[in-house]
Amino acid sequence: MMGCYGIGPARIVAAAIEQSYDDRGCIWPAPLAPFDAWLVPIGDEAIVAAERLEGELAEHGLTVMIDDRPQGPGARFADADLIGVPLRVTLGKRTITDGTVDVRLRRDGTEETLPVEQAAARIADLSKGLRPR
Length: 133
Prior knowledge:
Blueprint: H1 9-19, E1 21-22, E2 25-26, E3 37-41, H2 44-59, E4 64-66, H3 73-83, E5 87-91, H4 93-98, E6 100-105, E7 111-115, H5 116-129
Parallel strand pairs: 3-4, 3-5
Antiparallel strand pairs: 1-2, 5-6, 6-7
Helix pairs in contact: 2-5
């Protein structure tokens, strides 16, 4: 018979989720999150803009998930909350026309509308602010 009482990846993940969740899903601490940002493009034009933004965020060292599934935006927003990625970035017809992106923090739900030219730098700053020093 053997027993193991050590800490391992499964216990770390379980403890992180137990410490930080709400009724919509888990809220990953930034160092444990599967991605730094979850991009939700709405419409064909937004997919091109999302891919461009993904490249800019990669230059800042961030990992990004582009959720371009055929489901509606509400389902994709719900999945982003369920998975608990720290930042959700929405690009749609309105934001493309206005030259902006919408950014939402998973932890507290605060939202910002950013000019697309400044979006990558601001998202990188927000991501760094979520990490312990």
